[in-house]
Write a structure and sequence with these properties.
Endo/exonu/phosph_ase_sf; 7 helices; EC 3.1.11.2; metal-binding; alpha+beta; six-stranded mixed sheet; Deoxyribonuclease I, Chain A; magnesium; hydrolase
């Protein structure tokens, strides 16, 4: 079973890229972030013609998350993160697919930091951690996949000294990520490639992709029930170089039976 996460940075603007990638790689499950489209503007027909059924939580102009599954309908479990009924951002979606619970998330950026946006990011992280603990307590096989907007270590960022004050790399953000992992989650990409420089995002500016000046901010976390089923992981880096592509590349894992 191949599960992927991809921040598409505007699903309608990047639809040709998304459809090409789906056709060439055939993942079984895909978590999408930053749809940047209201609920009624999701390209459901094009996705279905590509062989996928979808559930999505759209939002006009920004945010938005979706879960796609090949030849099967994702069974929606929830479409918001518990803990703040006044939070209107479309950032979390959860579904059951072939016996696996998949949480698709788009964690807040948090810049500028410090400030209200950074406070919101950390509060959202706290809510995610609390919900993740409940998911672990269920003892179900779970994948938390998405754009976490955190570089966990210096290995995950090009020239880390330049990012010390950024909300994605501040000590509070990295500590929140480590607190989440400490519950018992496995960072799948790091499990497979513990010491390699691997990025999932390259800015559009200053030829960042050409210079490989990237960040690793898109992650797939596995519950203990799935850790031993992890057979492979990777980043489809070449997709970032396609015309009119997102500034993120798809990240994927392969699970055995």
């Amino acid at each position: 079973m191949k599960i992927a996460t991809y921040n598409v940075n505007g699903i309608n603007a990047r639809l040709p890229v998304l459809l090409r990638w789906l056709k060439e790689t055939s993942p079984d499950v895909v978590c999408l972030q930053e749809l940047k489209a209201p609920q009624e503007k999701f390209p459901e027909q094009a996705i279905e013609e590509a062989g996928y059924q979808a559930i999505w939580h759209g939002q006009k102009s920004w945010n938005g998350v979706a879960i796609l599954a090949r030849n099967v309908k994702p069974e929606e479990v929830r479409r918001e993160l518990p803990g703040d009924p006044e939070d209107t951002h479309s950032r979390y979606l959860e579904a059951s697919i072939n016996g696996i619970l998949v949480g698709c998330l788009y964690l807040p950026n948090g810049n500028p930091a410090p400030g209200p946006k950074f406070d919101y990011k950390l509060h959202w992280f706290d809510r995610l951690t609390a919900h993740a603990a409940e998911l672990l307590a269920s003892e179900k096989p779970v994948v938390l996949a998405g754009d976490f907007n955190v570089m966990p270590t210096e290995l995950d960022v090009y020239k880390p000294e330049r990012w010390l004050d950024d909300a994605l790399f501040r000590p509070e953000t990295r500590a929140a990520y480590q607190k989440l992992l400490a519950q018992g989650w496995t960072d799948a990409l790091r499990k497979v490639y513990p010491n390699e420089v691997i990025y999932t995002f390259w800015d559009y500016f200053r030829n960042a992709f050409g210079r490989n000046a990237g960040l690793r901010i898109d992650h797939l976390l596995l519950s203990p029930q799935l850790e031993n089923r992890l057979k492979g992981a990777g980043v489809d880096r070449e997709v970032r170089g396609w015309e009119k592509s997102s500034d993120h590349a798809p990240v994927w894992i392969e699970l055995g039976d």
